Amino acid sequence: MSASRGSGRPLHALVTATQFIAASAALAFVVLLFVNEPDSGAVSSDGSGSDSGASAAGQPDGATLYADNCARCHGPDGGGAVGPQLSEGRAAELFPNVEDQIAVVANGQGGMPAFGGNLSPEEIQAVVDYTRTL
Amino acid sequence: MVGHPNVAGAPPTSARTGLLLGFGLGAAIAVAFGAYARVHDPTGESVVVLFFSGQIQLKAWFATVAVALALVQVGSALWLYGKLGGPAPAWLGDAHRLAGTLAFLFSLPVAYHCLWSLGYTADPTLDRVFVHSVAGCLFYGAFVSKVLVVRSSGLPGWALPVAGGAVFATLVVIWLTSSFWFFTTFDGPKL
């Protein structure tokens, strides 16, 4: 064991340990992709959301659609986060005309992404209606 | 040299096999990721948030850390191969591997949420998301190719720079179409 090799051993050991962790994480990554079940219904693979956000009567469930598509930016209760607050009547204040809100959800505006390619018109209507009840 | 099988610059058979294996397996991995993301029903759920304010914030920052570590990888690779001038210190090889491994680790939670929760967007009219989906699949294919190429011997000199460059390029595209977009579109780089 030379001095030069000895000085590099801690780093080499760290690399080895990190690579072992990375290999284990990669294995877990692949396994979880197939075995991890969602807590609620999944969104269909074409992004239509027809499996998620459908009520028992087959009508789009605005609350579920909101949780799946909007809550990450507007907050789980509509209190606002990255996106503006929608709760406590703010949605109706921002969009006195509901059609304007539907257009923004469908087509996007500023930092708001467009959901017209992911949600059906009925789902957009349902989620917009839901935000106006928060 | 006339009549030598490599006279036209073609790699020997073993090298060709190595190239085919490295880049072929990488292509298969990329296709497999795309197929999974396309077939799997996206769950739309968060996975892990840690101390971030939301899933998207965690992903934006993890991807940014991965890109920063990838820059370290590129810089250390250039130094290792004498492109920066001056001899590389003995520890640089380990530092290079550590940066790459950590970048890979930081990418995993991001990719997991993309694949498991969001899925693959094949609609070319959604430019950013479509490019991001394609680059995300290509990244892990390029990563596998790079790992195989760097551990192979006798390959042409261009193989490693191409493989490493593909990993870096796809990661940068991923970052530009996600983290950069998020930071510049919303409220800036907040946790």
Quickly describe the structure.
With 134 residues, chain A is mainly α. Chain A has helices spanning 3-35, 62-69, 71-74, 90-94, 98-107, 121-131.
Give an account of the 3D structure.
The complex is a heterodimer of chains A (134) and B (191). By secondary structure, chain A is mostly helical. Chain A is 53% helix and 0% strand. Chain A is elongated, with a radius of gyration of 23 Å. Mean pLDDT of chain A is 77; it is low at 1-6 and 41-53. By secondary structure, chain B is mainly alpha-helical. Chain B has 5 helices and no strands. In chain B, α2 (55-80) runs antiparallel to α3 (92-118). In chain B, 42% of the residues are buried. Residues 1-7 of chain B have low confidence and may be disordered. Classes of the chains: A mainly alpha (134), B mainly alpha (191). Chains A and B meet through α1 of A and α1 and α3 of B.
Low-confidence parts of chain B: 1-7
Radius of gyration of chain A: 23 Å
Global geometry of chain B = globular
Reported for the largest beta sheet of chain B, the result is:
none
Sheet/helix structural class of chain A: mainly alpha
Written as H for each helix and E for each strand, in order along the chain, the element string of chain A is: HHHHHH
List the secondary-structure elements of chain B in sequence, H or E: HHHHH
Distance between the termini of chain B: 62 Å
Number of helices of chain B: 5
Instruction: Work out the largest interface and the residue count of each chain.
Output: A-B, 39 and 37 residues
Distance between the termini of chain A: 69 Å
What general form of chain A does the structure show?
Answer: elongated
Main sheet summary of chain A: none
